[in-house]
Amino acid sequence: MSSTRPEIIVHPKSFPPSDLQSRTYDVVIIGGGPAGETTAAGVIRGGLTALLVESELFGGECPYWACVPSKALLRASEVITIANMVGGARQRLEVLTTKYGEPPKPEVNLEGLWERRDMFAHDWTDDFQVKGMRSIGVDVAHGFGRVCGVKKVAIKDWHSKEEVEVEAKHAVVVATGSTLIVPSIEGLKDSAYWTPRDAVSAREVPDHLIVLGAGAVGAEMATLYNQLGSKVTLISNSLLPKMVPEVGETIRESFTKAGVDVKLGLKVTSVSREGLNIKVFLSDNSMVEGTQLLIATGRRARTTGMTLESISAATEGAWIEVDDSMCVKAVSDGWLYAVGDVNGRALMTHIAKYQARIAGHAIVAKSKGTYDSEVRAKEWDKSVAKPTGRAIAQSIFTDPQVAACGLTPAEADLMGVKTRTVSVQMSGPGTWLHADGYKGWAQWVVDEHDRLIGATFVGRDVVDLVHASTTAIVGGMTLEQMWHVTPPFPTMSEVYTTLSEAAETT
Amino acid sequence: MSSTRPEIIVHPKSFPPSDLQSRTYDVVIIGGGPAGETTAAGVIRGGLTALLVESELFGGECPYWACVPSKALLRASEVITIANMVGGARQRLEVLTTKYGEPPKPEVNLEGLWERRDMFAHDWTDDFQVKGMRSIGVDVAHGFGRVCGVKKVAIKDWHSKEEVEVEAKHAVVVATGSTLIVPSIEGLKDSAYWTPRDAVSAREVPDHLIVLGAGAVGAEMATLYNQLGSKVTLISNSLLPKMVPEVGETIRESFTKAGVDVKLGLKVTSVSREGLNIKVFLSDNSMVEGTQLLIATGRRARTTGMTLESISAATEGAWIEVDDSMCVKAVSDGWLYAVGDVNGRALMTHIAKYQARIAGHAIVAKSKGTYDSEVRAKEWDKSVAKPTGRAIAQSIFTDPQVAACGLTPAEADLMGVKTRTVSVQMSGPGTWLHADGYKGWAQWVVDEHDRLIGATFVGRDVVDLVHASTTAIVGGMTLEQMWHVTPPFPTMSEVYTTLSEAAETT
Question: Do B486 and A393 touch (CB under 8 A)?
Answer without folding.
Answer: yes
